[in-house]
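INPUT
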Amino acid sequence: MLRGFIALLIFQGIGESIVYFGHLPIPGPVIGMMLLFLTLQARNQGTPASLESIAHLMIRYLYLFLIPACVGCFFLIKNNLEGWIIIIASVAISTFATMIIGALMMKYMLTRHQKKSRENS
Amino acid sequence: METASLAIMFTLTLLGFWAATWVLSASQSESVIHLFLHPLVVGPFLVTIFLILLRIDYQQYRLANEPFFFLLDTAIVALAVPLYQQFYNFRIAVKPLLITLIFSAFFASISAAGCALMFGVDISSIASLAPKSVTTPIALRIAEKIGGDLSMTAGIVVLTGIIGAIFGPVLFNRLGIKDDRIKGFILGICAHGIGAAKALEISRKCGAFAILGLSATGILTALILPYIVLFAVK
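OUTPUT
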């Protein structure tokens, strides 16, 4: 697990360095994640056990790491209740619209895709 | 004294998390209330109450909990592992999945920003709103890059996840969608980790597609949204 953790930190560091030296507006850890993904793909030997166990552990405790950021949100709500009603409405409308359009679109394309592959075979 | 107060505030986060997981396991998993008792609602709420009672302001608390913000970045890198393990699912239908992903990821962020703009919200709130469908750790980093407020983004993202996870299954029923691949993928794109947890309750396959949807949305939005914002500001 320690080796897996070191690997994660190395990729995190590489990602941050690329963003810093390249002056990119992209979050560094996302670059690190993509590089790790590409490395795993290129190795093509499955996930190393140490990496797998640390990744599962990190994801299991994701909520713990997120608590401090969410605490800030409660402080914001306390100060500006009115603004939050508008935000909740915007979030709800946009989430409903995206889910409906996205699901119908995917259903249409999947049926067409399946028909096509059946015709070809 | 300084280190003692840091230790107390750090422990407060751990206690909040522990209490929140306890509340979650004590509640009935079938009810809607269960989703509102999400660890990211209960935990921060309890911590906030304690901070107010102890008269500690948020900046001090945040300073003590800086290690968690760092680990959050490491957790983003760790997301590469589930993405790698679920990636083979992409190959069943590359084009439909890719088009759905690109459209939904953009529509989610643009429609939220558009709604808020219509209602007359200030620019910094819109920047906090734009990454709403992205998994929280990545959303926080995106908000930071485009000038949003970190705490506000955290709240909005959790809210989006809960709304998506509650109403997603209802909407799918109404629309007559029975394919678990569609349910999972859309839940992952629109409601990130909270949606993926719901998808895992539906079936394993549904969960796998949700994980695929959530990591792909995170990458796509992180790579493109900052450039859109830079362009829009110019």
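end of record. Chain A touches chain B through 73 residues (CB under 8 Å).
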